[in-house]
Design a protein that fits this description.
By secondary structure, the protein is an all-alpha fold. It has 14 helices and no strands.
Length: about 325
């Protein structure tokens, strides 16, 4: 009989599986982006994701209306989430996978910076040093001194990092007071309305196989999101969150298999610096316990997925609604 994983490895193991599914999601987005506008892909992904999201929303036990408690924060988060999703789809459609991941990995560093004005956090010298080192890694990936190599795809990836980080910090500010339904539904509706308005300008008839790929994009996002909820239920956030960096491995594998991509040395060096900076922040916070924001857990704010948000702050809110027997794990988990 196969041996069970030790309890301490279940959460990280589930996170690795979830991020593998997310990487597969991104491959499909990139493949579709070779034929269709990113706006069209988002529109149909959201459209096909609504039934899946509805199933999840029906499980929300909290009573109340869809009127937000903090409308201005919800509005800002919606803008940030929409920008992050559009930026991500455009970047994956136009850049090598490894470059997109490397730039989006800067999100935890940006959360550290944004936590100062939004959450009133105090950031010490060690975390500032990690942020600065991470930004150096971003420059190594971007190579701004080589202007000819820069493109709108790089700008879109940076927009994704900034937008997703902003959305995550806002969730951590208001998440305990807002219903999860509100946090999920408003960005989805905004994406649907905005991309729908652009459809007359970008629409191309979709083949049945491509429409099936779009449906699979929604399904992968939904499935991976549920697995991430389980990962955060069963593991420490400080251990689960760094599993996000496994996506750089999938980027190298999928990029070589499907798109003939070979990440160059500066991309690997820059990604390594960014990852090391993020890991330093989470290790320091795990030891010191001085921050309420857990910045390294914010990476997956990289985008609002069509069926379920890839935002650990929201996933943690969902994970808090756990069956009897997990209360001890919940008490051990870091606060968002």
């Amino acid at each position: 009989m196969p041996q069970r994983l030790p309890p301490a490895l279940i959460g990280p193991g589930l996170a690795l599986l979830a991020f593998a599914l997310f990487a597969s999601h991104d491959v499909l987005v990139k493949a579709l982006g070779e034929t269709y506008s990113s706006f069209q892909i988002i529109f149909f992904s959201v459209l096909l994701g609504f039934p899946l999201a509805t199933v999840m929303l029906m499980r929300d036990p909290r009573s109340g209306t869809l009127r937000p408690v903090h409308p201005w924060w919800i509005a800002l988060r919606t803008i940030a989430g929409v920008s992050a999703l559009m930026g991500a789809f455009y970047a994956f459609s136009n850049l090598p996978l490894a470059q997109v991941y490397a730039l989006i990995f800067a999100s935890p560093l940006l959360v550290t910076v944004l936590s100062i004005p939004i959450l009133g956090e105090k950031v010490g010298l060690h975390r500032w040093g990690a942020v600065i080192a991470g930004l150096v890694g971003v420059l190594v990936v971007l190579r701004p001194w080589n202007v000819d190599a820069l493109s709108l795809g790089h700008a879109a990836a940076l927009v994704t990092a900034v937008g997703s980080s902003t959305a995550s910090v806002i969730v951590r500010k208001i998440g305990r007071e807002e219903r999860g339904v509100v946090l999920l539904l408003y960005p989805m509706v905004a994406n649907f309305v905005l991309t729908g308005a652009l459809m007359p300008l970008v629409y191309r008839p979709m083949e049945a196989v491509h429409l099936g790929m779009v449906a699979l994009v929604a399904l992968l996002a939904f499935t991976a999101g549920l697995i991430m909820i389980s990962a955060y239920r069963l593991g420490e956030a400080a251990v689960v969150a760094p599993m996000q960096y496994s996506q750089i491995i999938w980027a190298a594998i999928f990029g070589a298999l499907f798109f003939q991509e070979r990440p160059d040395l500066p991309t690997w060096i820059g990604a390594g610096i960014i990852i090391a900076s993020g890991l330093y922040i989470v290790v320091r916070e795990s030891i010191g316990g001085t921050s309420n924001t857990t910045p390294v857990g914010a990476y997956s704010t990289r985008m609002e997925n069509v069926a379920v948000p890839r935002i650990p702050a929201i996933l943690r809110l969902q994970a808090n609604r756990m069956p009897p027997g997990y209360e001890a794990l919940a008490k051990r988990a870091p606060k968002q």
